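Subject: design request, 237 residues
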């Protein structure tokens, strides 16, 4: 759906039997929640928000004005992407994406904590390229961090981070790997064959296929986003 800008009317209550996601088509954090909704087969509706020109009513859903936000038919509001994803996993039936073992759950959360330091580096690289800066040192730092992720897969000796099938942490980190090409960082994986194999395996997953954005489309969106264009969130509609 086209993103709702400032001045648009607030949507009505969430219909019974559905959960509503406030999202933005190109946001990697909201994609995490979209992946979990798909993976668990949860009946949902998506309302996109124009993040460059937000409607006033949206701040009543989340005071920070960020996406993703989940809203239930009871009017309950949940935000912060890892929180929304764990909520969906716990509140809805179907395959559990978080491991049942407390230590394995802790391992996934530690990995996610480490990964959150990589996401800021990736965006720093996008801005450095835009400003025409030398990114050699930054690229080396990113490659080193990916090397650590490679080590985790080597030690576990599994295709995915949670074992032989996709689990929560795989979905949590995927959106940034999907964006490596438009971020001009594809070559950062040259020395991480297990990470490359993980990416190829992830691309076969139905939830990934349903939410993936073509690299060229993302590149064009990114150019508008970096110019602060209010049209960025509408790109391609």
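Subject: RE: design request

Done. Sequence follows.
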């Amino acid at each position: 759906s086209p993103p709702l800008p400032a001045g648009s009317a607030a949507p009505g209550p969430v219909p019974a039997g559905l959960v509503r996601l406030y999202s933005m088509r190109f946001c990697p954090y909201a994609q995490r929640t979209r992946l979990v909704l798909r993976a668990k087969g949860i009946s949902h509706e998506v309302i996109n928000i124009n993040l460059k020109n937000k409607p006033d009513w949206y701040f009543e859903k989340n005071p920070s004005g960020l996406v993703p936000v989940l809203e239930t038919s009871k009017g309950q509001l949940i935000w912060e992407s890892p929180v929304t994803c764990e909520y969906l996993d716990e509140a809805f039936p179907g395959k559990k994406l978080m491991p049942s073992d407390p230590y394995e759950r802790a391992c996934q959360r530690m990995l996610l904590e480490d990964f959150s330091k990589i996401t800021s580096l990736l965006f720093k690289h996008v801005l450095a390229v835009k400003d025409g800066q030398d990114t050699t040192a930054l690229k080396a730092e990113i490659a080193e961090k990916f090397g650590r992720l490679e080590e985790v897969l080597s030690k576990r000796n599994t295709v995915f981070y949670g074992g032989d099938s996709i689990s929560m942490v795989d979905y949590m980190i995927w959106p940034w790997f999907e964006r490596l090409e438009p971020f001009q960082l594809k070559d950062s994986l040259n020395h991480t064959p297990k990470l490359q194999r993980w990416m190829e395996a992830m691309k076969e997953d139905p939830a990934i296929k349903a939410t993936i954005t073509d690299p060229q489309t993302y590149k064009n969106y990114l150019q508008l986003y970096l110019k602060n264009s209010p049209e960025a969130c509408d790109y391609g509609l």
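The CA atoms of residues 18 and 43 lie 5 Å apart.
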